[in-house]
Backbone:
């Protein structure tokens, strides 16, 4: 599944197949059993949960993966990473903390609780490949 | 008869590894970029210090080196936060505000006091004048847990080269020194006594004078007396 350059998504993105993002996503991405690839044109401002995350574009937000996070050359992550395996290529940008032990536990964590009364309405949930 | 360990130690004293001397780097247009591998002794001690800790927190004061993050993560199952102090220095040089560095370092780190298990200080103190070095040393000493350890490298040679060094961990006994351009050169070499005074709240656990002309020092934070 591919999200193209011209697509902008604000809200929660979840699904059960591998996903490649070339567009913009703001909110939350949940692909616990699948691989998420942020392409060279992809710009993400979100909490990311996936089995594996490959970053060639830009991510702002915390990234949790149950298997691996791979920041490739020219990829950028501004946020904390939790995963048992992390690879950061030469030329990649990373600013944040890396936790390589608690990643499994975090990846299995339940989605965040709904907003309390009085808070802004929850963003629309987008299902990918469901 | 010399055993394997003492032979390794001897090679450490002899200097850089022959096979990897001055390896070519991809971007040859940057004249100041060099890459040489040297033995290290303090790194093994640093790892040994953290081996028993559960999910230790390491603070790395150097630039982000992806392979180091992987190395420490896989060896220690740790949390690592990279805080590039060289970038802080360069930013202050650009802004012409070097005199503000001591004040900046005093409030630079957001971690709670006593929350960090290990600090990779590398050689960053060599680039600071005395007040800024003292402010940084005091700030990071405060972050260390009791029994936590700090690895520092200190040049024993004066140099005019305006470069920082990325210390890339090859293995527990080898570091690759990869230089890159800096906006400030190393300041006058710190003497052993000066270094000890900078970290007056820590005790020197190990000190090695290497053929790479670096002094490798491992500091431990003493447990408070009951």
Residues:
């Amino acid at each position: 599944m591919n999200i193209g350059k011209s697509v902008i998504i604000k809200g929660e993105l979840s699904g059960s197949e591998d996903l490649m993002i070339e567009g913009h996503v703001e909110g939350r991405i949940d692909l616990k059993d699948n691989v998420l690839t942020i392409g060279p044109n992809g710009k993400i401002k979100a909490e990311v949960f996936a089995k594996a995350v490959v970053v060639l574009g830009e991510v702002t937000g915390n990234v949790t993966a149950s298997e691996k996070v791979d920041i490739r050359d020219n990829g950028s992550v501004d946020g904390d990473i939790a995963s048992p395996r992390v690879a950061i290529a030469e030329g990649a940008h990373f600013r944040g903390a890396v936790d390589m032990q608690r990643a499994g536990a975090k990846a299995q964590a339940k989605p965040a609780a709904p907003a309390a009364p009085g808070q802004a309405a929850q963003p629309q949930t987008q299902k990918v490949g469901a | 008869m010399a055993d394997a360990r003492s032979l390794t130690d001897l090679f450490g004293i002899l200097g850089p590894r022959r096979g990897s001397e001055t390896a070519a780097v991809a971007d040859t247009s940057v004249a100041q970029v060099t890459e040489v591998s040297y033995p290290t002794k303090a790194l093994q001690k640093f790892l040994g210090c953290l081996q028993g800790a559960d999910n230790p927190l390491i603070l790395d004061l150097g630039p982000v080196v992806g392979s180091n993050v992987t190395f420490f993560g896989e060896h220690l199952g740790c949390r690592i936060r990279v805080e590039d102090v060289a970038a802080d220095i360069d930013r202050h040089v650009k802004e012409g505000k070097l005199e503000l560095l001591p004040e900046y370092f005093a409030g630079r780190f957001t971690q709670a006091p006593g929350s960090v298990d290990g600090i990779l200080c590398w050689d960053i103190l060599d680039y600071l004048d005395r007040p800024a070095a003292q402010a940084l040393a005091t700030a990071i000493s405060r972050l260390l847990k009791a029994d936590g350890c700090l690895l520092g490298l200190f040049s024993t040679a004066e140099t005019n080269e305006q470069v920082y060094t990325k210390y890339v961990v090859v293995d527990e006994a080898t570091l690759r020194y990869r230089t890159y351009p800096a906006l400030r050169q190393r300041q006058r070499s710190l003497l052993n006594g000066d270094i000890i005074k900078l970290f007056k709240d820590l005790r020197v656990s190990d000190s090695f004078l290497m053929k790479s002309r670096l002094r490798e020092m491992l500091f431990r934070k003493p447990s408070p007396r009951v």
In short: The first helix of chain A runs from residue 103 to 107.
